[in-house]
Design goal:
Layout (H helix, E strand, L loop, with lengths): L2 H16 L8 H9 L3 H6 L6 E5 L4 H14 L4 E3 L7 H14 L5 E5 L5 H8 L3 E4 L7 H4 L2 H13 L6 E5 L3 H4 L7 E7 L26 E7 L2 E5 L12 E9 L3 E8 L2 E5 L6 H17 L6 H7 L6 E7 L2 E6 L4 H11 L6 E6 L25 E7 L3 H11 L6 E3 L3 H11 L5 E6 L1 H13 L11
Parallel strand pairs: 1-3, 1-4, 2-3, 4-5, 5-6, 6-9, 13-17, 14-15, 14-17, 15-16
Antiparallel strand pairs: 7-8, 9-10, 10-11, 12-13
Bound molecules: zinc ion (ZN).
The site of zinc ion has 7 residues, from loops.
Length: 457
């Protein structure tokens, strides 16, 4: 590729960083794509092991991070978008920076926004595509979940013939994308102890895609995911190739998994809590195997990976520990609630709700979250963010008394108040939407408690 386009795009990144505009994680890519529309394909063309794309409503950042750890553990040199810029411009920026920093890279691995995936795949011609789940998220941005399923099906039709699909057997919408003509690796959770008593209120894909009948579940794991079947026998959860047959929840500290794969059993003890992370770990193991990473090192590499920023990240502040658990839609928020309930201590919670574009302007989803099980366990709850009062109303309707509820829309003041409430040595669980998480991390970075996200790799 001609050098001037690359030089100009990189200069844009330095300028953006210099101005403090979010680390320049997408601007250089935008400049590059304007100068040279085919740049993504050109930059990736020489990677001997090609590109892998990971997409989902929930968990793609964590899964990409775990998969990256597995590949690096095997000695691969990777180009990845660790800063979480997951549109085409972010992928272009990551490639631009990556080929400079790692001229002999083996492969590229990107987490990609659900709606951006078809265009990124068309340009990048990936060798592996990992599709994890589809939940209702930011409805005002994407419209119906059904349209995403159709767009993904169209993308799969256009993939290179030798590409491998990695699909979640437990999500009925994702499993429906299974195409017998394609190399496919299915993954799922197969531990009966994980089952929820019933489908949550926020469950999304709960009808047979052939006849419309309500699916029956032998086991519900997360949201609408689990062991599902049409009552009339049209469709059923396919048998996964990569199965987590034992999932032990180690409180809010982490997980212990035993995963059966075509390449043998893999044990992993990641420092990531909750059943949703069991899906992320199992998906990452399947992704790494599909990429050709040898099975024997995957468990240790995944177990040693640190949490991605804001996703189970732990930060020390004033003698307390903050645990940041991004919660940006009903399915994700239900899982964070389920996860903090694993802590036997009285709970100190800070819940933050913003309504900017990246969060979704419609905050009515908080009424679909099952916050009620928290009520008997909360020592102190602080609600914050631009829509703090909506959260306060939600908890008042749930039956929360005013004595344990503080409303402080200002993120930094709310964080200080929540920390001051908690005894020294205690844990404060922070459940923010996306931009609220970025805002709080910014405060933590300024105070030297956390690293800037674009340095997080
Ligand atoms: Zn049916």
């Amino acid at each position: 590729m001609p050098a001037p386009a690359l030089t100009l795009a990189r200069a844009a990144g330095r300028l953006s960083r210099g101005l403090g505009r979010g680390g320049g994680t997408s601007l250089p890519g935008k400049v590059l794509l304007r100068l040279r529309p085919g740049a993504v394909a050109e930059l990736a063309a020489d990677l001997p092991r090609g590109a892998t794309l990971i997409s989902a409503t929930n968990g793609k950042t964590t899964t990409a991070r775990l998969t990256t750890a597995a590949a690096k553990g095997a000695g691969w040199r990777l180009i990845a978008n660790t800063a979480g810029a997951n549109l085409l411009s972010g992928v272009a920026t990551a490639l631009l920076d990556g080929v400079a920093a790692e001229p002999n890279a083996d492969a590229a691995l990107f987490e990609v926004d659900e709606a951006a995936l078809p265009e990124v795949a068309r340009q990048l011609q990936p060798r592996v595509v990992v599709l994890m789940n589809l939940f209702r998220d930011q409805l005002d941005r994407y419209g119906e979940l059904e349209r995403l399923v159709q767009d993904w099906a169209g993308m799969i039709d256009d993939l290179p013939s030798d590409a491998t699909l990695v699909l979640n057997a437990d999500d009925p919408a994702v499993a429906s994308l299974h195409d017998a003509r394609r190399k496919t690796l299915l993954f799922g959770l197969d531990d009966p102890w994980l089952a929820l008593p019933a489908l949550p209120h926020a469950a999304d894909s709960t009808r047979c895609r052939r006849c419309g009948a309500r699916l029956v579940y032998e086991q519900v794991t997360v949201g609408h995911m689990g062991h599902w079947a049409c009552p009339d026998g049209h469709l059923a959860r396919p048998q996964p190739d990569v199965r987590a047959v034992r999932v032990r929840l180690e409180g809010t500290e982490g997980l212990a998994l035993r995963v059966v794969t075509p390449a043998g059993e893999i044990e992993a003890t990641p420092r990531l809590p909750g059943v949703h992370n069991a899906y992320n770990v199992t998906a990452a193991i399947a992704a790494a195997l599909a990429m050709g990473v040898p099975a024997d090192g995957i468990g240790d590499a995944v177990g040693g990976a640190a949490a991605a920023f804001g996703r189970g990240e732990r930060v020390a502040l004033d003698g307390r520990e903050l645990v940041l658990l991004l919660a940006k839609n009903p399915a994700g928020a239900n899982e964070t609630v389920r996860t903090v309930l694993l802590d036997p201590e009285p709970l100190h919670l800070l819940i933050a709700l913003n309504d900017r574009t990246a969060d979704g302007h419609d905050v009515s989803w908080i009424w679909d979250v099952d916050y009620e099980p928290l009520l008997g366990r909360i020592a102190q709850l602080t609600v914050t963010g631009e829509r703090a009062h909506d959260l306060a109303l939600r908890f008042r309707y749930a039956g929360m008394e005013l004595g344990r509820l503080r409303v402080e829309p200002h993120l930094e003041r709310a964080m200080d108040a929540a920390v001051a409430d908690a005894p020294v040595g205690a844990t404060v669980y922070v459940l923010p939407t996306y931009t609220a998480m970025l805002g709080m991390r910014q405060v933590l970075v300024e105070r030297g408690a956390a690293a800037a996200f674009w340095r997080d790799g």
